[in-house]
Amino acid sequence: MRQEDVEKILKIGVQLSAERDFDHLLEQVLSCVMELANCDAGTLYLLDGEALRFKIMRNHTMNVYAGGDGKDPDMTPVPLRQENMCAMALLEGRTICVADVKNCSEYDFSGPIRYDAMTGYDTRSMLAVPMCSREGNKLGVLQLINAMDEAGNIRPFPEHMILILESVASQAAITIQNARYIQEMKELFQSFVRVMSTAIDERSPYNASHTRHMAVYGDRFLCELNRKAAEEGKEPPFSAARRAELLTSVWLHDIGKLVIPLEVMDKPARLRPEQHTAIFHRMEVLRLRGEIDCLSGRISAGEQERLTQQTREAEELVESINTAGFLSDETLEALRILSEQTYTDEQGQTQPWLTAEEYKMLSIRKGTLSEKERAVIEEHVVITEKLLSQIRFSEELSHVREWASMHHEFLNGEGYPGHLTADQIPMEVRIITILDIFDALTADDRPYKPGMPAEKALSILETMAVKEGKLDSELVRQFAESRCWE
Fold this sequence. Notes:
The chain is of the alpha+beta class. The protein has 3 domains: 3-181, Beta-Lactamase, CATH 3.30.450; 210-264 and 372-482, Orthogonal Bundle (Hypothetical protein af1432), CATH 1.10.3210; 273-367, no CATH class. 53% of the residues lie in helices and 11% in strands. Strands 1, 2, 3, 4, 5, 6, 7 and 8 form an 8-stranded antiparallel sheet that branches.
């Protein structure tokens, strides 16, 4: 083996071990082997069931460069049959070398011959090297075409080159197997993440699509940010790894809701069901007692009629307040007046038409949650951080715990749970917060409000950014321009 061949093999080893992307790794394997063999064309196949699937194709003379970008070449897979040279190499686990395919009857070369007839290419020498793992599992085949001499003439593949290529193919097989293991582990983890996220959303019919929407919008928005940066000649802000880390944070941002009581998380009205029933039962009792008092002569028919009207109006007021998104000062004043109404019970005790707790719940100006209930809901981000602290994230996902548990922080320090300020909130968290608020505003499956149009939601985001200083105004502007929810 020549010194230059040894140096090339060592160089290939370094290149392969440094490559992290699986598709780029396959491309690197074929390119390195073709350079080492000094050949004009080559194909890398990977075993898929009972066939060899084209993954990378290179042909310098024909200027063909397919695969390597995550998309397989549009070629029919090669069946694992003995008449196919590359298939035979894998089936028998040996390198097959053919000096001239047009004068070889042992294998089926009808494909290359048809290709030559259509394109004018001249396929002659061919070499197929199987790739197998250390355990002997068949992975694929490296097929090389037309070895070239120093003058650029086609020649058979030299004997000494076969051992060199087998060595590189063995090293490549181990690298591919390791990359597959890593990829499978990543896919397993992402599947687990999606399962956990689905479990959160499925707990409540009012939250069924929230995280999925955020992930879809987020992925599109990040791609748009990258595209804009590329247009301006800047480095795209989100690499594939950084994008995956942010989207994983999105998928896990609400994991703390797994332990939030559904009666709080799904609360569609200010009053709990038993409180609502109690008020309406009380009004019905007041009307019935009014009828009895009228029949007994203790009150007049006019007084009974006024009582009936007052209790009906009380029910209408309670009903309108119970599910309203926001209470005006006028409504709150009407509720206060109602809360001062009293009656005398059967024991002669004076009782209010509304209990103190009922009045307190109905007096919630915005939303359906009391301060105590809101504190329970807000606890979900603390629980998210606590749950994610139990997961040993890889270096590529090392920020997931932090980003996922900060999505309710605002730049002006009014968020929760840490009341962080702008210098403490990274760009990724700012994006997650925008996605979370936008979907919450536009969602049509929430118990306490109807979904609003996107333009109105964008207006609220802009107000929160420009006037209130809660959100990143530049990111809000870019988000609005992206139309990533469409």
